[in-house]
């Protein structure tokens, strides 16, 4: 594009110059175009409001299960990803992504398994086609119990 100008009716004039490889001459095209912009709200905020350890029998105690209750503001998410990292949130240990269906209010419970006791950084990302939002927390898992 060799030049563009804007006018008060939100149209723009575009002058396009193309090289013609055969004859070495230029083709000029002038015209107007319009474009629409759709503004979407997106997922504005994610909060982890509760973390609950799931009590299991000793025969089931291979993995510690924790339920995360999550809320969000804005548009409704279509997928959730959970990244479990070391306590500094620098080294990722695992990542799980799942599609979700939220129909009315953004309040969901996410259950994740932890293979061994320890302190972990949890990043929960909610996403849709146009946006993502993240919440982080530190969690201490102690052989089936979390704090």
TrEMBL record:
Signal peptide (residue range): none
Gene that specifies this protein: Qnr71
Highest taxon, organism lineage: Eukaryota
GO molecular function: integrin binding
Cellular compartments per GO CC: plasma membrane
Organism: Menura novaehollandiae (superb lyrebird)
InterPro entries associated with the record: PKAT, PKAT_KLD
Protein name: QNR71 protein
Pfam families xrefs: PKAT_KLD
Residue span(s) of domain PKAT KLD: 71-121
GO term, biological process aspect, one: cell adhesion
């Amino acid at each position: 594009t060799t030049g563009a100008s804007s006018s008060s009716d939100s149209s723009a004039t575009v002058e396009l110059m193309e090289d013609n490889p055969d004859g070495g001459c230029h083709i000029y095209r002038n015209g107007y175009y319009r474009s629409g912009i759709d503004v979407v709200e997106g997922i504005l905020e994610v909060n982890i409001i509760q973390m609950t350890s799931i009590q299991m029998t000793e025969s089931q105690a291979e993995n510690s299960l924790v339920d995360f209750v999550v809320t969000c503001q804005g548009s409704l998410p279509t997928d959730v990803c959970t990244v479990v990292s070391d306590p500094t949130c620098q080294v990722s240990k695992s990542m799980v992504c799942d599609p979700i269906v939220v129909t009315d209010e953004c309040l969901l419970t996410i259950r994740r398994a932890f293979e061994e006791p320890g302190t972990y950084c949890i990043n929960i990302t909610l996403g849709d086609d146009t946006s993502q939002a993240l919440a982080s927390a530190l969690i201490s898992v102690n052989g089936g119990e979390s704090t």
